[in-house]
Design goal:
about 400 residues; about 55% helix; 3-stranded antiparallel sheet; single chain
Length: about 400
């Protein structure tokens, strides 16, 4: 009877526990459906978008649009950054002339006029790729998050018109423009200062650059009208408008997307240089197979580092000679160490003579010992024979 009661208690416990687990799972599913930050199609969540966009959401509209487009071509960003650092004396018109011969996307060329921004994108290549992937997946979601962040900063009184910029609100859309169309001031700010306490503790803002304590501007960059006005975000439609005619200052390929005039920006997969897209739908859209994506993934911890031979040679061009010199030096050091540890011919000859003489001496001594032993044996045998013979003669029959 007691055993039956115990079994009934155990069974009741398991039934209650199972009901609790099922209700807990149901509650989590309902919360996931109601939570706008949860993504069901593999795209970026609200937390991820806020994390990557927070440090740059308050940039001027034209610069932000250029960053969105250029981030979809991460390897060209690296190449452009190395070019700008190598040719630091090129500014304004001279830089435009030098850029015309480059085969990079027009967005990458234009952002060369902002060396600090270009350097941060190149140094934080993983974040740049993420930004580009998010923008390719859903341009409107990215641009909506920018507006959400700007609204928070404006509500806190930390986004307003200054000598460096103009902040305009049109139908709840916040637009940031340069006060002078030919000079751009890039803001630098602390995210926790301009937005207030961060609302996604598990997704802290990404650090594109060392943040200042509050909010400030870098030295103004003279860019001319062409760089500052050839593109702009269309916040209502969630895309980027391009004035193709104004790209002629720094780009030979005037017919971007065909024709002239204003066009909506379209990603050109040729400038991607084989870097893997983030998900299957994007890969399918731009004609990249899953197998090729695995080989050319630019993510961290990958053996291929996202680079095929041609791209590796292009990006590592400046380091190639140095690596070759290092390899030659290592080979030379190995040869020297081998020579130092390897005995000379004369030393080998002397060692051979000493071994030979020692061998002969040892063989001679052993021969002398063996001859002495043989003589001793013969003597003892002769002695025993003589003794034995006399005994027989003495032991003969008596007459």
């Amino acid at each position: 009877m007691k055993n039956c009661k115990n079994e009934l208690k155990v069974l009741t416990f398991f039934v209650v526990f199972s009901l609790f687990l099922s209700m807990f799972g149901l509650a989590r599913n309902v919360a996931a459906k109601d939570d706008p930050a949860t993504s069901s199609n593999g795209a970026a969540s609200q937390e991820e978008l806020a994390q990557i966009l927070a440090p740059i959401a308050l940039y001027p509209d034209s610069l932000l649009a250029q960053m969105f487009m250029a981030a979809t071509y991460p390897l060209e960003v690296v190449e452009a950054d190395r070019f700008v650092k190598k040719n630091g004396s090129l500014k304004e018109d001279t830089l435009d002339k030098a850029l015309k011969d480059k085969k990079w996307d027009v967005s990458v060329k234009s952002i060369c006029h902002f060396p600090s921004v270009l350097a941060s994108m190149s140094d934080n290549l993983d974040a740049t790729k993420r930004l580009g992937d998010y923008f390719l997946e859903n341009q409107k979601a990215v641009m909506d998050m920018v507006q959400t962040l700007r609204a928070k900063a404006k509500k806190g009184g930390n986004l307003k018109t200054t000598e460096e910029q103009k902040v305009v609100v049109e139908k709840e859309i916040i637009i940031i423009e340069s006060a002078n169309p030919e000079v751009v001031y890039v803001p630098a700010y602390s995210c926790t200062y301009v937005y207030g306490p961060w609302w996604y503790p598990h997704y802290p803002p990404y650090v594109w650059y060392p943040p200042p304590p509050r909010y400030g501007f870098s030295t103004g960059i003279i860019i001319g009208i062409g760089i500052g006005s050839w593109c702009r975000p269309n916040w209502g439609r969630g895309n980027i408008d391009i004035d193709i005619n104004r790209t002629t200052n720094f780009n030979n390929n005037v017919k971007i997307g065909g024709g002239k005039g204003n066009k909506s920006w379209k990603h050109n997969s040729k400038h991607r240089q084989g870097v893997a897209y983030n998900n299957k739908s994007t890969r399918k859209k731009f004609g990249q197979s899953d197998r090729a994506a695995k080989k050319r993934d630019l993510g961290r911890g990958r053996a291929s580092k996202g680079l095929d031979r041609k791209t590796r040679n292009s990006i590592k061009k400046q380091d190639l000679n140095r690596n070759v010199r290092r390899t030659d030096n290592r080979k030379q050091d190995r040869k020297i160490s081998k020579r130092a540890s390897r005995p000379s011919a004369k030393a080998k000859q002397n060692r051979f003579k000493s071994q030979r003489s020692s061998a002969f001496s040892s063989s001679g001594s052993s021969g002398r010992r063996s001859s002495k032993m043989s003589r001793r044996g013969n003597t003892s045998r002769n002695t025993s024979r003589n003794r034995g013979g006399s005994g027989r003669s003495r032991g003969g029959r008596r007459r």
